[in-house]
Amino acid sequence: MDIRNLSPFISVSPQITPEDVGVAASKGFKTIICNRPDNESEDQINSEAIRLAAEENGLAFEHLPVLSGQITDADVTEFQSLIKKVQGPILAYCRTGTRSCTLWALAEAHFTPPKAILNIAQQAGYDLNGQLSRLEERNQQPHSTSKRSIYHSVVIVGGGAGGQAVAASLLKRQPSLDIAIIEPNQAHYYQPGWTLVGGGVFEREQTKRAMSSVMPKQATWYQTALSQFIPEQQQVVLENGDILGYQSLVVATGLKLDWDAIPGLRESLGKNGVTSNYRFDLAPYTWKLVQSLKSGTALFTQPPMPIKCAGAPQKAMYLSCDEWHRSDVLKDISVEFCTAGAALFGVKDYVPALEKYVEKYNISLAFQNKLVKVDGPNQQATFEVTDVEGNIKEVVKSFDMLHVCPPQTAPDVIASSSIADTAGWVDVSPETLQHKRYGNIFAVGDVSNSPNAKTAAAVRKQAPVVAENIISTLAGSPPTAVYEGYGSCPLTVERGKIVLAEFGYGGKLQPTLPQWLVNGTQPSRLAWFLKEKMLPWIYWDLMLKGKEWLAAPKHLTHKPEPQSAPEACDFKEKKK
């Protein structure tokens, strides 16, 4: 069977047989389109036989016959409408595949430069140079948008950890790849370091670099924000109105810290004892409060999941308590951990070690306590407290120091788009990180709905998977690199010691180093060394430069089934 890929959404082929339909189904195609009139030749297998085979294999079938050498604008319009309404991936066929490829090219010409279309067709084995003038004419015609699109092979939305790591991993594999990165910010932050800023270990400026210093020189940087996704046309719209077309799209926007979800919080931050290590400008204030507090009440809050780095609220608490313990004032400070959750930590293997520190620091645990209001001037915090029977009541707590982890959601531009699930996150396969409906879209980092911990360590393992799967889909092959849900949370239980939580899907432990070297379930000085000295270097000099040390992707031993569960597949290490 001779399948030729034009994009992850559509492929073309010469005449197929009923037996080929089963092969197409096994490769993940959802719809077959026949562009060949019946009875065009004596040896032809007519459309009805292919339709029956498609029905037997659970595929949709559409018949849009066009005459060889006589493709009309009406044919192209009908083809455009057809591919918008059917489920992809699509396999279109005719006698040689040329008519199907031509229909695609002319339909695409409104949105993609003719040169790019001709190159894609050439790579698939079709010479469409004879259509150049028609492609150029259609490219100049007005369509649904007011500006012509600029085309790139890969567009990455977001220049944070995920976007930069994927770009670096892509360029490592294919240095000449045409990549665009959409990122409005001029600074790039090492956010895992903000916990140590709030604990007096790092200076704030150690966690910040100019965006231009981490942006790949080979990439085109669009210094603006995104305003709209148009996945049906393989386009995104920028805030300035420009339109970018793509073959493959990577969504790496991160998540939204919703400071306004809690009345009174935003206006209280940075004063009245209210702080958060989740903001670059506030982490030093956390350390200032810790040093100045000699007695009173310190509250540390955690909202409902999901949040980035689920251990971060506790890290701030333990480092604060350790400093108060060293200063011999902890006995005069009441410390309370107010979490909307029902457990101290989501992976039970690490809970015993954490409980020992809770006991050591005499911390009160307030489960199912959700922060709903902050009164900064009066230093009061209001919580919704849920009891064991599900009853909810409001409780007001006074504080001298309040460290807040804000509620977190998907960015508005994601949540309002067709690439989001019902909760607003990008809807991807948890294994391949490929979108469940749009095969040329991938997500990396906090914005996806894959059920892993949202940490920079997760991004380090996800980026090579996404890069490898993009290269595969651009070449017309299915994605086979897989992500097993790895996340890491170095829980800073005291200055100089860390409980190094490393786990994947389902809470399965995934330690990087042998247990005799670092037992992640117990506090370790070596783990602190890794956090303080090694991880920043790994981030800046390895991860953001495509050096995948201890992060090489694993691969499926068989072709993936759509939306298959993480535990359903066998894995093997990539051969180097």
TrEMBL record:
Q: Which UniProt keywords apply?
A: FAD, Flavoprotein, Oxidoreductase, Quinone, Transit peptide
In the UniProt record, does the keyword NAD occur?
no
Specify the FAD/NAD(P)-binding domain's residue ranges: 153-272
Task: Note the InterPro entries from the entry.
Answer: BLH_phosphatase-like, FAD/NAD-bd_sf, FAD/NAD-binding_dom, Prot-tyrosine_phosphatase-like, Sulphide_quinone_reductase
Q: Where is this region: Disordered?
A: 557-576
Q: What is this protein called?
A: TIGR01244 family phosphatase
Say yes or no: keyword Flavoprotein present.
yes
UniProt source species? Idiomarina abyssalis
Q: A GO term (biological process) for this protein?
A: sulfide oxidation, using sulfide:quinone oxidoreductase
This protein's cofactor list reads:
FAD
Pfam families of this UniProt entry?
BLH_phosphatase, Pyr_redox_2
SUPFAM superfamilies the UniProt entry points to: (Phosphotyrosine protein) phosphatases II, FAD/NAD(P)-binding domain
User: Which is an annotated GO molecular function term of this record?
Assistant: quinone binding
